[in-house]
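Hey all, quick one. A colleague (J.T.) asked me to put the zinc ion job into the tracker so the inputs and the structure tokens live in one place instead of scattered across chat threads. No bug as far as I know, just bookkeeping. Sequence used:
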Amino acid sequence: MKRLIKDLGLGYDKIHSCPNDCMLYWGDQKNQQSCHVYGKSRWMNSNTEDVNTDEGGAQLRKKPVKVLRYFPLIPRLQRLFMSSKTAESMRWHNDQRTDDGLLRHPADSLAWKSFDSKFLSFASDPRNVRLGLAADGFNPFKIMSTSYSTWPILLVPYNFPPWICMKQSSFILSMIIPGEKGPGNDIDIYLQPLIEELKQLWSGVETYDVLRKENFNLRVILLWTINDFLAYANLSGWSTKGRYAVLVVLRKLVRSGCIMGSSLTWAIVGEYRGAPEQTVGSEILFMLKDINFSYGKMNQPPITQTRRRSRDESDDESDEEDDPNEAELWKKRSIFFELPYWEHNILRHNLDVMHIEKNVCENIIGTILNVDGKSKDNLQSRLDLVDMRIRRDLYPQVLPNGKYRLPPSIFSMSKKEKEVFCMVLKDIKVPDAYASNISRCVSFKDRRLYSLNHMITTS
Ligand SMILES: [Zn+2]
């Protein structure tokens, strides 16, 4: 079965990686036995019980510590032109799309059109593929283990009409990154094989088009990434933690709705200025040209500690003086910039709003139900209030035993009230197909909600 799947161009490569995410045993480093950064072995305790016996029984094999599953992209894209039906759908954005100025498909967007006007030869063949890349972590063992985060990377071919391109069956699985914590900023290490293929696909690969009965040079671009707020930081290299959790904007660091520290202290201020100037890719490259970045978990200075000012320091400083150097806020030069056209993409990263809504919702619910470890109304955020000299009634009170007491907030609920709240969600009835069944997420016993993720995947 495995051989059959491989012959269909659906196989995958196992690529070993350093457990600290410093490197892949791939390309020039394919045969290395240990990581060149900290010398960590590629293998699990290589001469003990981890030695496996092969089918033949004779050959002994060592077990790698960490394995990336990589699904080669080129054969998958070529396969789309082997069926006349999909080959026709791949031209949809050019042949059948209604071009009336309304926005229904990525092809209607400014990002797509500006790419086309810059790269005319690419745009001239509608069979050339535009891809979106989506990345997020999830825990496949949900209940059994709380600390596991597998990162699948998916590609979406945007040539298809909207009703096909967003179907699960059209998604192309590019890789599965295993790990307990998720790759974080080191995700670039794992993206290397994909970027390599994308570079090759920018010049093109010879492909047979069954519809036209001819060979043609198939070219492919990555249009943008789709991610939640945290993955956005990892993919773009821009630090979204701390006070500069600001998106496209660099020039004008907007201070409204800022997130302070680890807490969710929303300082809502009216914003009446116009849209900020956009920072284009070439400006970012210029900013990052002299900065060295390194990968691997052992390699990184604890950024949050070194960059977060201490509380005392923050007093009496004007906000303007306080703004760090723009380049300091970049954690790396994202690997996507190795793609020759990336700096010309006007929209490089998209935020998945539904996903962020889910995250925000989880935080709000965790806060109002005061779930242990999930509430954002914690000591940290109360200390922020002291810093900001607002809401004196909510300041933490030091108890005789040295611990803190947090005076209840306006939204604090009693046990009875929490039960009523959960009861309402448990019994709620919503129109079919408009919302998923939230009552399944309610846990009455401990008065909290579980697996809101499940709601976005099913709704
Ligand atoms: Zn390493």
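Adding what we noticed when we looked at it: The CA atoms of residues 22 and 37 lie 7 Å apart. Residues 1-69 form one domain.
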